[in-house]
Design goal:
Elements: H1 8-13, H2 32-38, H3 40-49, H4 62-70, H5 76-102, H6 109-127, H7 134-144
Bound molecules: zinc ion.
């Protein structure tokens, strides 16, 4: 899926004359790998998400992130929660990228991380299975609230 997003490197490959630089950092060429794993903006978001718990590794490209997501290392509930956080992270990065291009504005990464936490909290609350252990509920509160 990552290779289908209309990032600037793809648009240039099909012949469109668009700027090359990442709209979020302005320092590197925009590609899916750069936007979602290498850009200082997404790295700051991941570091902020990891501030109290190590949730998401800093991967060098989308292939490595996808490989990591396919290898569950914690229980099912925590694994699904982390996948939900990653999905919300990627969605919000794409929203910020588009905002940088079309509105010329970029939210501070701490605001984006709070948005991600709110979205994941609401999502998990709406589909929380009944048989979640109390220690997992406590973990969920500690990472999102
Ligand atoms: Zn960048």
């Amino acid at each position: 899926m990552w290779g289908r997003l209309q990032t600037r490197d793809r648009l240039r490959r099909i012949g469109l004359q668009v700027e090359q630089e990442c709209p979020m950092c302005g320092m590197h060429s925009e590609s899916a790998d750069h936007l979602f794993t290498q850009c200082i903006y997404v790295r700051n978001c991941i570091k902020e998400l990891n501030r109290n718990h190590h949730l998401i590794p800093l991967c060098s490209n989308m292939g490595r992130m996808n490989d990591w997501l396919q290898k569950p290392t914690v229980g099912r509930f925590r694994c699904q929660t982390i996948q939900c956080i990653c999905t919300a992270l990627l969605y919000n990065i794409w929203i910020q990228r588009n905002s940088a291009i079309w509105q010329g504005s970029l939210s501070h990464f701490t605001k984006v991380v709070q948005q991600i936490k709110n979205e994941v909290w609401l999502r998990i609350q709406s589909i929380m299975p009944r048989k979640v252990q109390n220690k997992d509920k406590d973990w969920l509160r500690s990472i999102l609230l």
